[in-house]
Write a structure and sequence with these properties.
Distance between the termini: 66 Å
Structural class: alpha+beta
Largest sheet: 13 strands, mixed
Radius of gyration: 29 Å
CATH architecture of the largest domain: 3-Layer(aba) Sandwich
Amino acid sequence: MVIELAVLYRPNRAVFVCERLVPTVDVDDAEPADAKCGPLCQMRTAIVRPTMGHRVCHAVEDVRRRDKPRLAADLHDSADPAHACLKVAAGGSTFDPRGHGFRRPNLAKWRGARGASLTRVAAVKQARPKAGCRKNEQMSKHIVIARSKDEVLALRSDWESLCVEHPHADLDFYLTVIDERPEAIRPHSVIAYEDEKPVGLLAARLEEISLDTRFGYRIVYRPKVRALTFVAGGSVARSETAIALLISSLDASLRAGEADVAVFPSLQRETPFFEALEKAAGRYRQQRFAEVRTHRRLTLPPTFDDFLKARSRKVRSGVRYDAKRLEARASGELRIERLDSPGDFDRIFRDIVRIADQTYQKGLGAGFGDTPERRTLTKLALDRGWFRAWLLYRGATPIAFWQGSVYGGVYHSGTTGYDPDYGRDRVGIYLLMQVIAQLCQDPDVSIFDFGFGDAQYKRQFSDESWYESDVAIFAPTIRAMRINVTRTAVLAAALGARRALTALGLLDRLKTGWRKRLRTATPS
């Protein structure tokens, strides 16, 4: 019985379909297995079976000697085409009886849709042995793919046992984003298991988006694609086995046509997962010339005085000087308030949005905006005790804010902003010092995460950093490859311009001018 045709979801062609039924042994240019005529030879047909060598759906049912796949010349009786016995090698590779040695397993291919059934793929897992058989060590390695909200919720205990480190990878936050964004089609979550314990996670959204390609702050190319977008902190791998399982699953989804591209925003470089992902993608399917950014954070000391002592003398003097100048200008009217309870909801969207609407981030379509999605996520964060925001007022007028979330002992800095009229007074740095002073006294927080970017204040106040960049892996289709080539050209030009401006010492000046232009163009 045919369960799923090998040509399902593949290009519609009259001949040479990408994954058609193939013979057990090599053939030459679609000719018969025995190309030579022989009047004295008796011709017998070689077996032709579907590519089911990995037992995703069925176990071996008959392993008798004469039923195994073999050379056509040695074949006397027809074999069992759907349940032929193949040898599983160490590491999950499958032996190819056609003489090609060992190759990686071809995972089950599923076309994603809302309500699709939960998929358990035995990527490197043999069929369960019958009673009395010796259990193979590969049995304990498998993945589970969830493609609907109910299926993701069924994995809650395993998901939470992996202890994700970013609020965006929290299961409830992750599902809420999918519910709120109109471009999101469904969740796509993969959990890897070893010895029946979860050891890896990939959390993504399948969505239809414009793949923005920027030259500086300007978007110059934005093709429409179906993307698997992985959330911040949603790539967890506790072992080399987990890395192999997760990447194999991702590659199978792209080859099956579930998405045109898989996007990992701000993925940490020089890690086993990053290196394995680049190696698996190869030269032609991965995005090239991606901007390399610096991610910085600060380990909070016991007191604010200890924090200042760890800074240079010049930095300490600058902080004190700017604070005195601002306080003198405000004539004692400055006050700072922390908003972190559900009762602060209306005030958050009144005062923070009032400042955010004057920032350059607003001109880029980013920043803290009053949108249905932002309201829903803010309410969730307030209810869970994650939300932290500090506002600086002069009298009754808000002039600066610093917003973020506390998750897993880390304060993740989010959006910030200030009134442009107070830009020269460095109100942002003044407020940041007050935020750090309060977080030093908070027993639930030990790290201040500034996020990516190499702004001067991040360099001055952080004590740890690493490099990260966006990673995009494209599907092996003509359209996806064409998009990748065009993006590569734009990104290469942008990288060259950035390096030239850096060498001339003009990059920061250009950024400042561009941001002022965006701020001026933003309606108040």
